[in-house]
Structures are given as structure tokens and as C-alpha cells.
């Protein structure tokens, strides 16, 4: 927060004076100015007011919304890869916890694998795109059957 040093000097205050006004030690002010620690949100607001800045100006908030979204997406992807989705969803859909013992999964897995390969070869899709297309097709079929049953 070198902006703290700059604005403290502009305001003509010493570290001791800033510390006294905020109710913290001079060492705390020094650590903030040297980027060793950061003030909490309440202290940041007081500091911004003391220096006549907005909170955004004090923390030099210039991160682009797109950059934030990219960080969130990367975090979500990393978390998603670590989650056992079958186990997570089986609380809501108990069939997911039991079907492996009842269904010939290898037969279905072989057929689904063949369909994925077909989508990859025939349309040039990558593995993930082929998976998403197949998933979407299954959803459309399921919704069609569900709607037909309602008629």
C-alpha cells in the first residue's frame, strides 16, 4: 500500500499521528505502508476518509471485471475436477449411489464411448465438446419423453 505513504505525506501526518487517529500502533501503520500486512475493511474505510480518498482509490482497485470472472472460472474448474459428482448428487438422486451394482455399466460405457468417438470423427469435435453434445442430446430426449408422458 505505497499509496498510504504517499497520501500520509501529502496530508502532512506522521505515522504516529495516523496510528493515533485510527487507534492502532505506529508499527501497524509501517507494516501497511511496507505491504507487510493489510488493514481490515473498517480500518481501510477510516484510512480512506483520513486521506480524502474513496476506498477503491485507497486499495487501488483497478481489476477488470473480466479478469475477476476468469479467476472465478479457473477456481470453479479446479474445484469441479476434485468433486466426486456421483457422490454429491446421490444425496438428491439416490439411484446414483446404487445403479453401478444393478446396471451393466460396461455395456453402456462401451456404447457411449462409441457415440463420443463418432461425434469426434464425424464432426471434428474435441473430446469435451463431443461429451457436451451427447449430454445435450440425452437431455433433449429425456425432456421429449417427459413431455410425451404428460400428454
Describe it for me?
The chain is an all-alpha fold and 151 residues long. The chain has two domains: 2-58, lambda repressor-like DNA-binding domains (434 Repressor (Amino-terminal Domain), Orthogonal Bundle); 65-150, no CATH class. Helices cover 74% and strands 0% of the residues. It has helices at residues 2-11, 15-22, 26-33, 41-51, 55-58, 65-82, 85-90, 95-98, 105-123, 127-150. Helix 2 (15-22) packs across helix 3 and helix 9 crosses helix 10. The longest helix is centred in the C-terminal third of the chain and has 24 residues, at 127-150. The protein is elongated, with a radius of gyration of 29 Å. The termini are far apart. The model has no long low-confidence stretch (mean pLDDT 89).
Work out the radius of gyration: 29 Å
Instruction: Count all strands and give the number.
Output: 0
- How many helical elements? 10
Morphology: elongated
**Poorly predicted parts:** none
Write down the secondary-structure element order: HHHHHHHHHH
What's the rounded overall pLDDT mean? 89
Strand content: under 5%
List keywords for this structure.
151 residues, mainly alpha, 434 Repressor (Amino-terminal Domain), elongated
Question: Concise description?
Answer:
With 151 residues, the chain is mostly helical. It has helices at residues 2-11, 15-22, 26-33, 41-51, 55-58, 65-82, 85-90, 95-98, 105-123, 127-150.
Task: Record the SSE blueprint.
Elements: H1 2-11, H2 15-22, H3 26-33, H4 41-51, H5 55-58, H6 65-82, H7 85-90, H8 95-98, H9 105-123, H10 127-150
Helix pairs in contact: 2-3, 9-10
